[in-house]
Amino acid sequence: MSSIKDVANLAGVAVGTVSRVINNSGAVKPETLRKVKAAITQLNYIPNEVARNFKMQKSKMVALLLPTIWHPFFSELAYYIEDELDREGFKLILCNSGGKPEKELYYLDMLQQNKVAGIVGITYNDIDKNVSTDIPIVSIDRHFDKKITCVTSDNFEGGRLALRELVKAGVRKPAFIGSLTEVPSETMNRKEGFIHEAEALGLDFVVYEKPDPVTDEEQFYSEFIREHGDVDGVFAITDMFAANYIERAGKEGIRVPQDVKVIGYDGIQDHQLFHPVLSTIRQPVEEMARTTIRLLFKKIEGETLDRETYRIPVVFRPGETT
Question: Do 295 and 230 share a domain, yes or no?
């Protein structure tokens, strides 16, 4: 299927010029108009009616659906998303669901009725059948049963990198700790990368995880410590998991990093829980946020994106826990 970009290339004009012709908005020279219409006919291009309607209504509102604004990672992400929207004269509607599926469904219904220009969705609930592609949408970390663009960090490589750094620090029996989600999420690839690298190196390793949400955190960490006392390295699925483990391990007389090396994932270093400073796989939060909005703008304009999942590289940021 041809895209608006294909029409622009064939006509030898900018995408914005094609958009003006399609929406009958703004001045276009007669010769240019003829070229664009000829290209549309030749390519049998069918404009995205939804994107056209939004543009004609001049909607300047984009919704951000978050599980919680309290989490430092989501807060930082929201900051850069709002900043990127502001650069283009768009405004942000923040929908803080608290991780509740019924609240997410309420927001999605509200956004459909109010016809925002687009949606950035972050959800770990099974709401696939209620997610519509009628409104341009880009998700973060999450795959749906529909073809919805997903932006994420390279979670698999992050898991591999964490394992290599633990081994470099002298770890002989590493463990992965985390939670299981009911829906397909890129975050699960952190564990897969860890396992892949551990097996490649021939290491004895542990995977310890419970269904999300972990309702009794104290029991979760106590059981892990009791059942796997010989572990000398931990890779946690998030920085918050790592911080909670370090706190519980200290109560059990386990010293970090002397007895156990610990690496988290996210890079939310300035949180008050992080004493000592956590070694972590840093997500490129700003790049993820700005990439998400730039892709969303393309979808609003009716462009066809070149792929469904955009993975952005991560880096290891050493701290005091390895």
Answer: no
Pairing of strands 206-211, 174-180: parallel
Helix (H, G, I), strand (E, B) or coil at 66: strand
Residue 241 lies in a domain: yes
Q: What does the pLDDT read at residue 318? A: 94
Taking the complete model, does pTM exceed 0.70, yes or no? yes
Same domain as 22, residue 127: no
Question: What's residue 50's pLDDT?
Answer: 47
Residue 56 makes CB contacts below 8 A (sequence gap 6+) with 23, 25
169 and 278 part of one domain: yes
Residue 303 domain boundaries? 58-153+286-312
Same domain, 114 and 134: yes
CA distance 264 to 282: 9
Q: Which residues contact 238 (CB under 8 A, 6 or more apart)?
A: 73, 178, 264, 265, 266
- Tens digits of per-residue pLDDT, 243-292? 999 999 999 999 999 999 999 999 986 555 567 889 999 999 999 999 99
Q: What pLDDT shows up at residue 274?
A: 62
Q: How many domains does the chain have?
A: 3
Q: Are residues 257 and 307 in the same domain?
A: no
Q: Which of 221, 320, 241, 218 is nearest to 275 (CA)?
A: 320
242, with CB counted inside 10 A (0-12, 13-18, 19+), is buried
